[in-house]
UniProtKB/TrEMBL annotation, chain A:
The protein's name: Pyruvate ferredoxin oxidoreductase delta subunit
Native organism: Candidatus Saganbacteria bacterium
Keyword 4Fe-4S: yes
Needed cofactors: [4Fe-4S] cluster
Annotated 4Fe-4S ferredoxin-type domain residues: 33-61, 62-95
Keywords: 4Fe-4S, Iron, Iron-sulfur, Metal-binding, Pyruvate, Repeat
One of the record's GO molecular function terms: oxidoreductase activity, acting on the aldehyde or oxo group of donors, iron-sulfur protein as acceptor
Pfam annotation, one family: Fer4_7
From TrEMBL, chain B:
Cited PANTHER family: PYRUVATE-FLAVODOXIN OXIDOREDUCTASE-RELATED
Gene Ontology molecular-function annotations: oxidoreductase activity, acting on the aldehyde or oxo group of donors
Coiled-coil segments on the chain, per record: none
Pyruvate:ferredoxin oxidoreductase core domain ranges (all copies): 261-365
Name assigned to this protein: 2-oxoacid:ferredoxin oxidoreductase alpha subunit
Residue ranges of every copy of the Pyruvate flavodoxin/ferredoxin oxidoreductase pyrimidine binding domain listed in the record: 14-238
Amino acid sequence: MSKLMNWKELPPCDTLAAKTAEAFETGDWRMGEKPVWHPEICIHCMICWISCPDSSVTVKDGKMTGFDYKHCKGCGICAKECPTKPNKAITMEKE
Amino acid sequence: MITVAKTGNEAMAEAMRQINPDVVAAYPITPATEIVMIFAKYVADGLVDTEYIPVESEHSAMSACVGAASAGARVMTGTSSQGLALMYEILPIASALRLPIIMCEVNRAISGPINIHCDHSDTMAARDFGWIQIFSENTQEAYDNLLQAVRIAEDKRVMLPIMVTTDGFIISHGMEKLEMIEDPIVKEYIGEKKPEYSLLDIEKPTTVGALDLTDYYFEHKMPVIEAMKNAKDVILEVGKDFEKKFGRQYGFYEKYKLDDAEFAVVVLGSASGTAKVAIDQLRASGVKAGMLKIRVFRPFPAEEIAKELTGKKAIAVMDRSDSFNTCGGPVFTEIRSALFDSQNKPSITNFVYGLGGRDINVEQIKNIFESIRNVGKVPVVNYIGVRQ
Ligand code: SF4
Ligand code: SF4
């Protein structure tokens, strides 16, 4: 852990720089399961991207490209919401 | 200067018009309703550029003020009593975020029993939330204090929210002569707000109001404590500058025939006008009576007040609210504590008066002087004007 600031070193007015959550790797919260993407099934609807609470679905040029496992906490929302049938383009699997 | 006749509420609404804040969020409550009601008319008539947010409660009003001030806006509101109480949850957030929100607060008794008249229980209950608190004796002071409040609150050394108070009905609805400063001069006097940060600044994005646990909460309270200390210097500087520009004198307190007084009362708000009459009558009959009228209650000018009161024979502190602590009202405990280190302490007695708008008159204040002249004969805490 970094050294704690004293009160005179704090940023002014109880503010923090934005996007500090990026440095906080929530990926180590996963409890043994991670989402796995099956690109051959994916229709790039972006439902997983908009549903992920940790912005951990990675996207390039409007196409889903996989997961940021450093921050994905394994909640499974993306797998649940993925609409493809009969097989889902995201499944939760053992790490 | 323009001489007009205005009630306290009208004077505050006029000051708001001249300040022309970016945002006003408010909810009506007696006896403060008129301030924001008159101001809403100014908005509707296009006399100001303000975004007026009519909200569903005072809790929402203060929340909207915090949001708008975080976005960098100059923000004002007005309230009283239960309305202020409904804001309590948000008040310390405004000071922690260092948002110089400006509030017109009309002192009114806190329920229950439900009551709409003046005492100081609402404002006193908000004294430990990191807001600067300024009391006014009359309409003129309410107007002048509100203009100075902008400069005090927004000073870079301070950056704290501020409430300027009047006394419910006595000042808020009492019509008096008011010397108003011309609009362009006020505009120049208050200047433009330069916020420390803005949520709308996408070039420099910030997180505001993050969670603080055992590791940082304490550190985040220290800047507020420091800012309150700075506020003492700034209040005096702003007061001096105001006097230089407009001729009316403002400091932490006003001394009325105090320097050579042997006996003195300490008063806040409208009752100080009554006390002045009582003191004049006592002086005419040879009693060396005087008064210290406190204008700034937060930050509390303890050392300065101690210097003024030390060496007096006896002091009566008049409190228009009770602390229910069995040992005196909020002003009394501050004054007594301020005098603790003085070598030549006066005897100090507390008189709680005027709860729920109960009248206080010249005779009663003369009786207070009579009581303290017989040092040791009265209890430490007294309740006057109550049937017992
Ligand atoms: S498992 Fe949860 S955190 Fe991970 S990518 Fe899916 S929705 Fe996001
Ligand atoms: S929800 Fe499923 S189909 Fe849609 S983009 Fe995500 S993985 Fe592909």
